[in-house]
Amino acid sequence: MGFSLGLSKYIKFNSKKFSLVIFNQRLPFIYIFFNTLYKKFIANKNVNDQIKKFHQSGFTKLKVNVTEIIDEYKDKFLIEEIKNDKDVKRQFFSLNDLDKKNFIVKIKNKLRPSIDQLESYFNCDVVISDVKMIRNYNHHDKHNLDIEHYSNHFHQDSYLMTYNKIFINLMDISENDGPLEIVPDEMRKSFIKSFNYKDRNDYNTSGDSSLIYKNTGKKGDCFLFSSPRVFHRAGVPQKFRDNMVIIIITIPKHYHQNLNIKSEENLFENNYKYFQKFVKPYSIIRVVKLFIEFYKYKFYIKRES
Ligand SMILES: [Fe+2]
Question: How many angstroms is it from 279 CA to the middle of ligand 1?
Answer without folding.
Answer: 14
